Every structure is written in structure tokens, then in C-alpha cells.
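Folded chain entry
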Amino acid sequence: MKLRWVILSIIILGIFSSIIYIYIPAKEIAKHEERLEEPKKIVAATGKVEGWTESDIGSKIPGKIYEIKVKEGNHVKKGEPLVILDKGDLIAKKEEAEAELRQALADLKKYRDLYREGVIPKRDLEIAETRHEKYTAIIRQIDAALEDTVIRAPFSGRVVKKYKEIGETVGSLTAPDYILKLADISRMKVRAEVEESDIGKVAIGQKASITTDAYPGEEFTGEVFRVGYSAGKKRLRSDDPGERIDTKVIETEIEFIDTEKVRERLKIGMTVDIRIELDITHISAPQ
């Protein structure tokens, strides 16, 4: 009888030991998987889609637009003519200056001869030389202005905005007076506004998911490549009616990874929502 109880006790003890041996590692694995499945911590922000480089194109000289050679959406190469200004006034001024220069040159030759002969004082010769130099300089300035009537692309990119039409004047001296906006879309980015209370969590290299109401359920991917150094006022607004507008923000730039997809879907200037992933720590499996 005792032998039977001893054997039974050994069997029960073996079963119990097996349960403990199996259960504890399984529980640890479950905890590990639970940690892996925890949602990543994120910083949410609002941003604006931009080309890698953007420039508002104006005129170096005042004038009237004679021709706009591009349309919104056109791709252009560096140095390609974008806008032609009316040359009429400049050509007329150059013709007048050339006539004055011809007369000044004739007078200069005459005065040099007279000076060599001792007929006139050196002062009269210097006046003739100054007049000749004046109209030479004027023609040089007009030629430079004529070159500036052709406004060229400073870099290759896409025309994303047209501000002016043919016949309008440009070249205001008191305020920016732009004709076109050009963007380099070989690479694209988001300029995000991160609240100053969150900026300490954001670092270069962190991944981000980017969404827009224009494409519900669709995500674009990006990576933080610049974190600003100064705080400023919030300029972009979300759809949240409870959003604070007096919050200070730091501009943070995120490069799109899926550039081809972005070029096809998103437009320059679109407002987007950003979720920057903060928890990038890899948890290794138990040995």
C-alpha cells in the first residue's frame, strides 16, 4: 500500500514539475511578445508638403510682362527661359544712348587733336573724356538690363505656382513682387511644426508616417533629417477645434522615402498630419 502511494506521489511530482517547466518560459515569452506588440510612442504634428528646394521667381528690373513661357505643372531645366519682359523702353533708351555716344566719340577725337595742338586747355579734354565714359557706362547698364528681361530658371524643377499674368508690371522696390514659384521635386519633404514640449523626444533618423485627408487610409513614409534650433509661432492649423494656437513650435523637416509615390499623389503646399515614431529600441529575444 505504501509502495503504491510512493509511486503515485512520484508521478504527481513529475507532472507538477513538467507544468512548472513549461509554464514559466511560456509566460516569459508571452510577456516578451506583449512588449513587442505595445504601440510605439509617437509625437503628432502638422506639416506642409514642400519640394527639396523652392524659390519665388521675380524680376531684377522693373518692367511689363511680355511673355510667360511656362504653365503651372511644367518641368523646366536650369537656365531655361521662364518669363520675357517688354524690351521696348530699353531698346529706345539704348538707341538714344548710342547716338549720344557716337557724338561723344567724335567730340573726343576732335578735342584730343585740339589739345595736342595747344588750342584748348586740358580741362576741356577731360570734360569730353568724361562725357564719352558716361554714355559708354549707360549702354553697358542698358545691355545688362536687356539680359535681365529674360528671367531664367535658377535650378531644374517644376513650376508650382503662377502669381502674375501677361501685361502686368513687376519689379516693385517696396515689396516682394513674384511672377512664378519653382520647386525642385527630385526629392520631397514635409516642414512639420512640432510643439516645443515634444521637441526633446524628436531626433534625426526617426521614422514618420504622413497622412492627408485627401487620401483617407493611405500612408506615406518619411524620415526626420533636420530639427530646428528656434521656437516660433504656430502657422498651420489642424481640424481639431480645441487646438491651441498660441503654442510655440519648432520647425522639423522630414524627407519622404517613397518619393515617386509622393510626386504622383501629393501637391506642393498640401497640409498633412505627421506621426513621428519615438520608440525605436530593439528588444532582443531571451537566450
Q: What stands out?
A: Residues 19-24, 33-38, 282-287 have pLDDT under 50 and may be disordered. DSSP finds four helices and twelve strands in the chain. The longest strand covers residues 178-195. The radius of gyration is 37 Å.
